[in-house]
Amino acid sequence: MWVFSILFLVSAIVLIVGLIMLISKRTRQKGKIIATSFLALSVIFYSVSRFGGNDYPNDKPGTITKGEYKQIKEGMSKDQVKDILGEPDSKNDDINEWNYIGIDGEKLDAIVSFEFGPGDNLELKLDGGLMPASKTSKPLEESITKEKYNQIKIGMTMKDTSHIIGKKPSDDYIANYYGNGNETWNLYGKNDSSISLSFENNKLVEKTETGLLSNNSNTITDKNGARDYKSSETAKEDNSDYKNEVESTIKSVIDKDFTFDTTLKKLELNKNEGTNNPNDYVALIYLSYNETHSEKTTKKWIDKYTSHLAAKLAEKEPDITSISIFWETPRFKKDWNTAKFNLTKKDKKFYFDSKNYDGTVFK
Length: 363
What we know:
Blueprint: H1 2-21, H2 28-51, E1 63-64, H3 66-71, H4 78-85, E2 90-92, E3 97-102, E4 111-116, E5 122-128, H5 146-151, H6 158-165, E6 174-179, E7 182-188, E8 194-200, E9 203-210, E10 218-222, E11 225-228, H7 229-238, H8 240-257, E12 262-271, E13 281-289, H9 295-316, E14 320-329, E15 333-346, E16 349-357
Parallel strand pairs: 1-3, 13-14
Antiparallel strand pairs: 2-3, 3-4, 4-5, 6-7, 7-8, 8-9, 9-10, 10-11, 12-13, 14-15, 15-16
C-alpha cells in the first residue's frame, strides 16, 4: 500500500524532529508530544503498509496476483478492472485485449489476458499460468470432439474458437505464442486423437486433425480447403533432393553472411497448393539465434537476417514462392519459437506479409 508507505516516511521524519526537540529544555515539552504522537502514527502506518496487502492499483505496473485475479469478474468495465489492477502491461486493440504479468504465479512467465466486448465490458478472462490447475474440472485436452472440430471454420477469431472448445487453452497446450493474435493451439481428444489450430492476426488460418474424424484420418484444412495430410507427407519425401539443395543454400548464407552465431535447426519444403504451378514450393525455415544479446539487439539482428536470407533465396532458389521463418532465441526461451515471419514472392522478390514477436520477450 504505497499511500501508507509515504505516510510512514512522513511520520518518521516528524518523529525525528520531535526527538531533536527533546535536547533543548525550551522545546522539550513540545518534543515529547510530537515524538509520542508520531511514534504511534509511524507504527500504525508501517504495519498497514507492511502487512495490509496490496493496494490498488498495483505497486508494480502491469502486474496481477492470484487474489486480484479472483476479484476480476466477467461483465466488469475497463475502469473497474483498472481500479483493481492499474494499467495493463500491454494491450491488443485489434481484439480489445489487456495483458498483465503474473506475480508469484504457478509459472514464472505467467500472463493473464482480459478480452472486452464492444461495450468495453469484460467478456473473457484467460489465465496463462498464474492460478493452479483445477483438480476437479474436466481436463481441456479431453474436451475436443469431432462435432466441435467441424464447427471450427477457417477465418474464425480466437474468441469465437474458444467459445466452441469451451475456453482458450492454457500455456501447456499453446505450442507457440507470438503475441498480437498469433498462436498455435494443440488439443487432444479420445483414443489419442488430436488437433492443431494455427492463428495469424487473431484469425484461424489452418487446422489439422489426426484420428479425430475417423480412426486413420489425418487431414489439414486452410483457405484452399481440406486435404489428406498424408499425401503432403509423401510429397515431402519426393522433394528430398530439392530439399537438400535448399538446405545447402541456407547454410551457405548463414556461414558466409551472418555475423553472429545462428544455426538452421530444421527445414520443411512443401508444394505450394495456392498456386497453379506444380513446381512452386513453400519453405518452412526454423533458425536459432544463439547469442546472449539484449532483447532490442536480438530483435534487430533477426529482422536483418530474415530480410537477407529471403533476398538470397529469391536469387538462388526461384521455385520457392512463399517462406515462413521461425526463430528460437535460447537467451530468453529454450526450445520455443519467439518470432515468426511470413513472406510471399512478387516480381522475383520476397515481401513481408507479417512479422510476429513473442510479447513476453520483445516488448
